[in-house]
Amino acid sequence: MNRFAHYAILFAIFALTACSGASQTESDSSGGGSTSTDTPTLTAPGSVTIDIADRQIILTWTAVDGATSYNVYWNTTGSVTSADNGIVNIADTTYIHNGLTNETTYYYVITANVGGEESPISEEVSATPTIVPPAPPSTVSVTAEDRLVTLEWKGSNNASSYNVYWNNTGQVSKDDNRIANLATTMVSHSGLSNDETYYYIIAAENSGGEGETTLAVSATPKNSGEGAVASITLVTQSGAMTLSWIGVAAVDTYNIYWNTTGAVDPTTANRVGGLTQLFYTPTDLQSGATYYFVVTSVYAGVESKASPEVSASY
């Protein structure tokens, strides 16, 4: 073998060895998934919502997978970062920020704590706390007597006064007659016409303004005459109605007559008879309907005239 052939063989062996090593290196590289671990991507809390109240802001957000707690960062200038004021290690996805200054805007971002690491910040949100008008009274009762209607209601939280709106045509609104700035939760509306129906709604008010009104109630004052029920009260509360009345001296039982159109006539209206108690709770009421009631007394088989009429929307 001459020297040229000898070197050619050595070169071929070297080339094969290098190629095999490169192939093994490439195989090791491509199979790296079996030996390396993927680091989970940290995501910021999303769907951040914000509500306001008097000196208060309520934040809520969607949970982050694997999060053990959350951090809320805030300021009053905007462009919030994690270097700003922080409320840390919140276990829930809701936070109520109390003790704020009304009419000042507050800015917020939220992060999640996952496996000892903190996520990127959420999208920034902001809100301005203020005094919110109070909710309408939740319970309203109406009593009809001779030329008089008395309204009573359960007070609303944070209310400083109440306004009662009324008319004698129906569909009462805030554009109608107003009995304003009532400091108590009762009003007696006197000087009315007997046998005429009066309609009422009530709204609570504070320094934040006037709130929404109650559903309408109505009553028809009447001089019922001897033996008749003179005072009848209808209370609406938490989706229920209760009718009550003041008993008369000589009585065996009471009858209730009702309809959903008004001007209840005992000869044609629905009847619940033979009651010995001074109250009645109607059932199977339909949402959105208005119910009208009168009561009569029965003694020795003789039925009295009907009481004043009262009504309420359900």
Arithmetic mean of pLDDT: 87
CATH architecture of the largest domain: Sandwich
Distance between the termini: 114 Å
- Radius of gyration of CA atoms, rounded to a whole number: 38 Å
Spell out the helices and strands N to C: HEEEEEEEEEEEEEEEEEEEEEEEE
Query: For this structure, what is the CATH homologous superfamily of the largest domain?
Result: Immunoglobulins
Quote the CATH topology of the largest domain: Immunoglobulin-like
Verbal overview:
With about 325 residues, the chain is mostly beta strands. The protein has one helix at about 5-30, and strands spanning about 50-55, 55-60, 65-75, 85-90, 95-100, 105-115, 115-120, 125, 140-145, 150-155, 160-165, 175-180, 185-190, 200-205, 210-215, 215-220, 230-235, 240-245, 255-260, 270-275, 280, 290-300, 300-305, 310-314. The strands form 4 sheets. Strands 11, 12, 14, 15, 16, 19, 20, 22, 23 and 24 form a 10-stranded antiparallel sheet that branches. A 6-stranded antiparallel sheet has the order 13-10-9-17-18-21, with no helix packed on it. Strands 3, 4, 6, 7 and 8 form a 5-stranded antiparallel sheet that branches. The chain is elongated, with a radius of gyration of 38 Å. It starts with a helix and ends with a strand.
